[in-house]
């Protein structure tokens, strides 16, 4: 997995975790509202005592049942609040960890991007250098071919001149031989 895919995966996980936090926060807010409403109801019921008379026992019992139910609801709400607070704390810690990791990842991405830019420039410079060397190599090869051609022509000309020189020497020697023979013939008389 490349660093880019890993980074995008981490961002996706962070977004999912933050969305989960929104649900927790919303549930916590609703629970806090319910708790406040129940506490207000309990305080209202306890601050306005219902006068009890000997003939009025039935309404007092139902009021006590209502208070017991409210207390039970309040206890349940407080228990749920505690659970939500614990989950919220764990989620916030996870979120902080992910934020730290995201910050480190963004620093790494920035560093890698800078290094990538430098490497791209180096590759471009190296490509330029290689193109220049390739052109120089072509020029050297062309020059070598030209020099080889000139050398072959010079060798051919040297061979031709040697042949011509030998022919001239052979003709001159033959002529000198004829003249010497003619002088020898002339001196016999």
Structure description:
With 189 residues, this protein is an all-alpha fold. It is 93% helix and 0% strand. It has one domain (3-49, 59-178). Helix 1 (3-47) runs antiparallel to helix 2 (57-187). The model is unreliable at 50-57 (pLDDT under 50).
Which band does the percent of strand residues land in?
A: under 5%
Radius of gyration: 55 Å
Instruction: Sketch the major β-sheet.
Output: none
Uncertain spans, ≥5 residues at pLDDT below 50? 50-57
Distance between the termini: 117 Å
Mean pLDDT: 84
Q: Order of SSEs, N→C?
A: HH
Number of helices: 2
Give the beta-strand count.
Answer: 0
Helix percent reads: over 70%
Secondary-structure-based class equals mainly alpha
Shape: rod-shaped
Overall tally of structural domains: 1
Question: Which helices and strands occur, and which strands form pairs?
Answer:
Elements: H1 3-47, H2 57-187
Core attributes:
mainly alpha; 2 helices; rod-shaped; 189 residues
Gist of the model:
This protein has 189 residues and is an all-alpha fold. It has one domain.
């Amino acid at each position: 997995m490349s660093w880019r895919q890993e980074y995008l995966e981490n961002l996706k996980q962070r977004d999912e975790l933050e969305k989960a936090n929104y649900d927790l926060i919303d549930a916590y807010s609703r629970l806090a509202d319910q708790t406040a409403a129940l506490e207000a109801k309990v305080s209202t019921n306890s601050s306005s005592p219902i006068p009890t008379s000997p003939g009025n026992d039935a309404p007092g019992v139902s009021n006590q049942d209502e208070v017991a139910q409210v207390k039970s609801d309040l206890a349940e709400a407080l228990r749920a609040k505690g659970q939500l607070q614990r989950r919220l704390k764990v989620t916030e810690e996870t979120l902080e960890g992910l934020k730290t990791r995201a910050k480190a990842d963004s620093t790494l991405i920035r560093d890698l991007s800078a290094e990538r830019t430098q490497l791209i420039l180096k590759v471009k410079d190296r490509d330029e250098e290689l193109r220049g060397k390739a052109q120089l190599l072509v020029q050297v090869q062309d020059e070598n071919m030209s020099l080889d051609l000139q050398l072959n022509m010079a060798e051919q000309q040297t061979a031709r001149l040697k042949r011509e020189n030998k022919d001239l020497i052979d003709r001159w020697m033959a002529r000198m031989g004829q003249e010497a023979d003619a002088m020898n013939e002339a001196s016999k008389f």
